[in-house]
Task: structure prediction
Amino acid sequence: MTSQKPVTSQKDTRTARLAAAPLVPAGPVSGFIGGTADSVRGVWRYRELLDLLVKRELKSRYKDSALGFLWSLIRPLTQLLIYYIAIGQFLGAARSIPDFAIYIFTGLTAWGLFSEIVSTGTGSIVANGGLVKKIYLPREVFPLSVIGSAFFNFVIQLVILLVAALIASEPPSLLGWGYVLLGTVLLLIYATAAAFLLSAINVYLRDVQYLVEVALMVGFWLSPIVYAWSFVHDALHSQLLNELYLANPVTLAVLAFQRGIWVAGAGVPQPADLGVRILIAIAIGLPLLWLCQRVFARLQSNFAQEL
Result:
């Protein structure tokens, strides 16, 4: 009996402390300015968890795999081989596009970053439903963890692409690196905005993830990845249609990567005002990203109930 008294006393003290502690509301703060600041602070407080989620995403993807991270290269390289043979050789695109293999791999690298963030980010909340239902934490960490793992794969592909570009031709110039940086920022802004919005809607409407797969399949062909931009420019005789085509931020990002890395295409026709268009797209994308995050914050209140 005497040995249980200190334990009981400790429990009583702990209970009294919990009862005296002020209640802290769990959940997003309303309002565009205050809510955004609270979301940023919440993600920063859980930055260590975010780092763990990124590492878990990478480890789970290649768990029990003999090749490990090499699989992040096998898929784009296989696509490169298929498109190079089917479109470059059989359809003759390689005859009008110099260094056709570098051209395709440049577009695939840019597109891979965007498509992986959007496709995996759409299901990120549902995939982490167990954590969402058990504890409260900023739900933004789940789409952001997908961005971290996708960016890791993107860096690996970009290094391989740069090595191939050095072997095939000359290295990118300083201006070329600027275009690559702008294209990467543009992809991250719009892909993150889509991941926030679609992951929240997917909790309430699970068909969204299947619609995203179809949209990405169509979106791949709406950007000059396996064909030259000049083909579209010559085929679309309407100035309005050409402007609509260039209004696609992914198209602008792909063109930026090609302008920066595809040195052999310096003489190939490209939009003269590409840099200005990218800056305008970034200026539009930042408030769009903010809006999508606020929609995400508004919808996350019932995530646990829906899951």
Summary: The chain has 15 helices and no strands.
